[in-house]
Amino acid sequence: MTDSSSIPNPGSADTSRYDPLELEGRWQTLWRQKGIDRTPQSSSTQKPFYALSMFPYPSGSLHMGHVRNYVITDVIARVQRMRGDAVLHPMGWDAFGLPAENAAIERNIDPGLWTDRNIEQMRAQLGRLGLSIDWSREQATCHSDYYRWTQWLFLELFEGGLAYQQDATVNWDPIDKTVLANEQVDAEGRSWRSGALVEQRQLRQWFLRITDYADALLDDLDRLDGWPERVRTMQANWIGRSRGAEIDFSTGGDQPQTITVFTTRPDTLFGASYLVLAPDHQLVDQLCSLEHQDQVTAFRDLIADLSTQERTSDDRPKRGIPIGAEVINPANGEPIPVWIADYVLADYGTGAVMGVPAHDERDFLFARRHELPVRQVIQVPGTDEHNSDGQAWTGPGVMIHSGPFDGLTNEEAKQTITATGAEAGWARAKVQYRLRDWLISRQRYWGCPIPIIHCSSCGAVPVPREDLPVELPRNIDLSGKGGSPLLQQEDWLQSFCPNCGNSARRETDTMDTFMCSSWYFLRFADPNNTELPFAAEAANHWLPVQQYVGGIEHAILHLLYARFFTKALRDRGLVDVDEPFERLLTQGMVQSITYRNPATGRYVAPDHVVDPGDPRDPDSGESLEVLFEKMSKSKHNGVDPAAVIDRYGADTARMFILFKAPPEKDLEWDDADVEGQFRFLQRLWRLVDGVTSARSQSPSGPAPLRLDQQLPERPADLSETETTVRRAVHTAIQAVSEDLSGELQFNTAISELMKLSNALSGNLDDLREPIACEAISVLVRLLAPFAPHLAEEFWLQLQGDGSIHQQPWPSHDPEALVLDTIELVIQVKGKLRGTIQVPADADKHTLEQLALASEVAEKWLEGKAPRRVIVVPGKLVNLVP
Ligand SMILES: [Zn+2]
């Protein structure tokens, strides 16, 4: 949290001439003209450093969440440049997708035009933030010079057997009228984008074989120690690897059928008291007895409209019915009944599970609801043989009621029961994943066309690479009705089979936009390549991204897809790296105050609130709740970045955002704190102005400081003020440098800048030139990544060489940090008995020796060794006789 007391009091602002709008505009123009943010050539000997923000969807307006994201990345890019790295810091647009298509339908405008207009606007808005972006590398995924290569990469995956078409039960979004990948349906079964309850449909769709990489995606998470633990855990859970066994249950009889189940608990096999099939499992109709057929049909109708999430969610009772059949438990030969139930899915695992109520909570609830037997086979540690507390025991224990396996631990039994079953032919060790293949087909217009031609003789034939791009037809009628608009483009649809030359039809599905964003970081490494999506040499030079910055909402979607893509392209020989993002920072949200009427749930705009001291609804007079929530239109709590820049300038906006909270924490907007940062910059202005115009009122006082002059050597005989100032300067270098390495702590870095400016205030006139120049030069360099315009202006005023942003990052002089001596308190049995002067950097052992040798010790210990010595370095030594 911010300690507002640490914001310096600016005093009266009468002499301030700090005009941020004028100087920021001037520097932005100059930087652009000089191309100062251009990426150095790949051949340079500097260490490459790739700093990347997750690129935005071009909605047309920049919001404060964007500002936070891009300012964080910009500070990192600027610091690394000053540290001597060759920095790649690009920006682009994730520009395909439904909002453009929906806007086009509403406004009757071409989605391409709408998108390009938005990009123009947002580029201009970004330009005002003073971001050191290399705009010569800009990419927009909806432009054919980009999506041509998305298609090219699709063909790579297709040829590598990683893209395929299949009939499947898929998630259908009835509002956006398209299918969705599993990752795009939330825990409540709603679309990530439209919020609609997702329906299940049977459709022929394109998939990417991400499951081939399940192990690699999971195992390599361990190497991503520069990622937040939370994101790694979310990905691991999503991939959901479970180790267990497949077990075959036979129906017995003359023509036995085998039903295979997967279980992570083969140790509980003797406790299986029923078996459940998915209602649409292929064996249900065959096994179902005559008298159960009507019930099975009725049950299937009942659950037809439920989403996967609704069927499997933990918080609602599971429904099921018996189908009048039995199978044999292979472990003990006992018959158990076969049921169908909503929570078992045909396309997950084998579509069949064994029910072990004694050792599984879901099975326990199901068994109790349907009066099925509960058979305990693992003894609850510390209890009698029978655990009767009315719930499932899912922990470890010793095997009981399990024939030859009794007495083993259940972990041992997992192995031995599987091994025994393997020998007998009814069990196999097996690893299973929660991760499904990635469904990339979308039945919408504004996306990258899938480069496939369907031929009645040859099937799905890839478009030859030399014919790419398959251009999206433009200026078409988007009514929003009647399926994919591409299905109605007869001219576009008609094509010829690249294989046999017969007339054929184009694929009308477009790609999930997450495909376009799964490789854009590779294109930035080689943005103008017209032969390939990127040259391996360029990609290998810049990748992996050393610091990626973006929202936690992409923890599974984009970040998992991008990792998969990188690994797949590595295996196709296109790039050497196998993880795209070395370090990941997920910035917190930007929140601001909201007023909500708890009775109606309605949000009231702050300027409509009656009596902010005791906020009330303007219509009803009811009392309002006051909360901090993520900025959004619907909550009337957005703060427009442009308005803040108009009032205070971009440097103040940047400083506030960086200072108000650590980067990964949520940030609460506070106008007073914005004002505080503005005053701090004004104070710096006066400080620098004071030393550049004249260092003293008196004509005989020191001359203005200039950094372009040959200075005398730093004198050896520093005054007390000079020593103190040098210590403050080098302490700041050390502290700010640490805050900008590893765990990025911009907020404390800015606090250090404030401390330094306090230490310099009022002292600069008393310093000799070498000391004063060092101090002011360091202050400006440390400020440069945070407030780039103001620092550049200071550098100009100080006659510094070139641009401040091309100066080396300062390094601290350890000698300057040394405090010569300090006063050490000596206690005897906790009572103050005297003090001695000791070297300030003395370690614990030295302090103990000095204390024992002191006159104080001699007097109070009377020559005896103390029983105990407690040393608090820098403070005291306590002698306990
Ligand atoms: Zn053909």
Class based on secondary structure composition and strand pairing: alpha+beta
Give a list of the ligands.
zinc ion
How many strand segments?
33
Shape: globular
Strand line-up in the sheet with most strands? 2-1-24-25
Could you give a short account of the major beta sheet? 4 strands, parallel
| Amount of helix | 25-40%
So how many helices?
Answer: 27
Taking pLDDT < 50 over at least 5 consecutive residues as the criterion, the unreliable ranges are: 1-16
What quaternary form is this? single chain
CA distance, first residue to last residue: 44 Å
Strand content: 15-25%
Q: Radius of gyration in whole Å, from Cα? A: 35 Å
Average per-residue pLDDT, rounded, comes to 91
Secondary-structure topology with pairs:
Layout: H1 20-34, E1 48-53, H2 64-82, E2 86-88, E3 92-93, H3 98-107, H4 111-127, E4 139-140, H5 144-159, E5 163-173, E6 178-180, E7 199-208, H6 214-219, H7 229-239, E8 242-250, E9 258-263, E10 274-277, H8 284-287, H9 293-303, H10 308-312, E11 320-328, E12 335-341, E13 352-355, H11 361-370, E14 378-379, E15 398-399, H12 410-424, E16 427-432, E17 438-439, E18 441-442, E19 452-455, E20 459-462, H13 490-493, E21 494-496, E22 503-506, E23 510-511, H14 513-516, H15 520-523, H16 536-542, E24 545-550, H17 557-571, E25 581-586, E26 590-596, E27 603-604, E28 625-630, H18 641-648, H19 650-660, E29 667-668, H20 671-693, H21 720-739, H22 746-760, H23 769-783, H24 788-797, H25 814-817, E30 821-828, E31 831-839, H26 844-852, H27 855-861, E32 868-872, E33 876-880
Parallel strand pairs: 1-2, 1-24, 3-4, 10-12, 24-25, 26-29, 30-33
Antiparallel strand pairs: 5-6, 5-7, 7-17, 8-9, 8-16, 10-13, 11-12, 14-15, 18-23, 19-20, 19-22, 21-22, 26-27, 26-28, 30-31, 32-33
Bound molecules: zinc ion.
